[in-house]
């Protein structure tokens, strides 16, 4: 077997034995030896995903798609990894705005943006978590209205409160 095949076999073995970092190293080397092979980039993306290397997985799946634009599995896995990244970014955004309002409770814009972040988090969450997250968003928009009733976003906040209230109350 040539070196490329050896690296593929080792990469597959490492993936099967849950050693994703070692698998990624083997698939990286195979990809270096076979620059035009979309399937190797796809395997590399899977290994990076399993290793928790989101940005590298995204790049590998994008490379696989560029080399094999009809590879449905590469598009699917890219979507999965992008979804996980979006969720992580929204969680981080919520944490940042929560810290901002904790440190300066009267910071109206932080309340407004925390409300928006809670709405985004609710959109990405399971059904049973949505109502609680929307209640948190509603609370933040009301605080924004309290601290900045004349702000240019006040009308948008009032509209959002009217939209969220029935969703929070439920059936």
> Helical content, roughly?
over 70%
Low-confidence segments, given as residue ranges, are none
| Amino-to-carboxy terminus distance | 65 Å
Helices and strands, in order, run as: HHHHHHHH
Number of strands: 0
Describe this structure in words.
Helix content is 83%, strand content 0%. With 171 residues, it is mainly alpha-helical. α5 runs antiparallel to α6 (108-124). The radius of gyration is 23 Å and the shape is elongated.
Give me a quick take on this structure.
The chain is mostly helical and 171 residues long. It has helices at 3-16, 20-33, 38-51, 54-67, 72-103, 108-124, 127-147, 154-169.
What key attributes describe this structure?
mainly alpha, 8 helices, 0% strand
How are the SSEs placed, and which strands pair?
Layout: H1 3-16, H2 20-33, H3 38-51, H4 54-67, H5 72-103, H6 108-124, H7 127-147, H8 154-169
């Amino acid at each position: 077997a040539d070196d490329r095949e050896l690296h593929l076999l080792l990469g597959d073995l490492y993936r099967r034995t849950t050693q994703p970092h070692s698998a990624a190293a083997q698939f990286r080397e195979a990809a270096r030896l076979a620059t035009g092979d979309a399937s190797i980039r796809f395997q590399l993306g899977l290994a990076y995903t399993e290793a928790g290397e989101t940005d590298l997985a995204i790049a590998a799946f994008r490379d696989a798609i560029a080399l094999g634009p009809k590879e449905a599995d590469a598009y699917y896995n890219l979507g999965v990894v992008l979804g996980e990244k979006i969720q992580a970014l929204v969680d981080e955004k919520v944490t940042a705005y929560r810290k901002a309002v904790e440190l300066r409770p009267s910071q109206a814009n932080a309340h407004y943006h925390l409300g928006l972040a809670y709405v985004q988090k609710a959109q990405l969450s399971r059904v049973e978590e949505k109502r609680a997250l929307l209640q948190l968003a509603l609370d933040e928009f009301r605080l924004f209205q309290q601290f900045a009733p004349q702000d240019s976003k006040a009308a948008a906040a009032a509209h959002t409160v009217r939209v969220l209230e029935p969703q929070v109350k439920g059936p």
